[in-house]
Amino acid sequence: MLVISAYIPAGMTSRVHFHSGVEAFYTVDGEQCLQTKDKAFKVKKGETLVVPTGVTMRLVATGTTPRRAFAIIVYDSSKPPVTRLPMETASELVACSN
């Protein structure tokens, strides 16, 4: 299990990536959009989201304040918890809309 405290300044994004296990987020402050190949999920302060194993994703801090969150990844210990993908693959993800 990997526990992460994450901070993304407003308007910034994470790398495009996926996990070898399920990931659960809790948004402490700000808001985010999680882009995947199938859907974009808006998550506001105080909300949670669970992402299944192997989903390609990118986080976007969509609010006017930094996005702060906790995440827990329960991953396959025979594989890396996070696999980064080229940023060019972001064009394959559903865009966040207002």
Key terms:
3-stranded antiparallel beta sheet, 9 strands, 52% strand, single chain, Jelly Rolls, 98 residues, mainly beta
Reported by name, the CATH topology is Jelly Rolls
DSSP helical segment count: 0
Shape: globular
Radius of gyration based on Cα positions: 12 Å
Q: Kindly state the mean pLDDT as a whole number?
A: 96
Order of strands, main sheet, comes to 1-8-3-6
Distance between the termini: 33 Å
Note the run of SSEs as H and E.
Answer: EEEEEEEEE
Strand content: over 45%
What can be said about the biggest beta sheet?
4 strands, antiparallel
Please give the CATH class.
Mainly Beta
Give the CATH H-level superfamily.
Jelly Rolls
SS elements, strand count: 9
CATH architecture type: Sandwich
By secondary-structure content and strand pairing, the structural class works out as mainly beta
What low-confidence regions span 5 or more consecutive residues with pLDDT below 50?
none
Oligomer: single chain
Question: How many separate domains?
Answer: 1
Q: How much helicity do the residues have?
A: under 10%
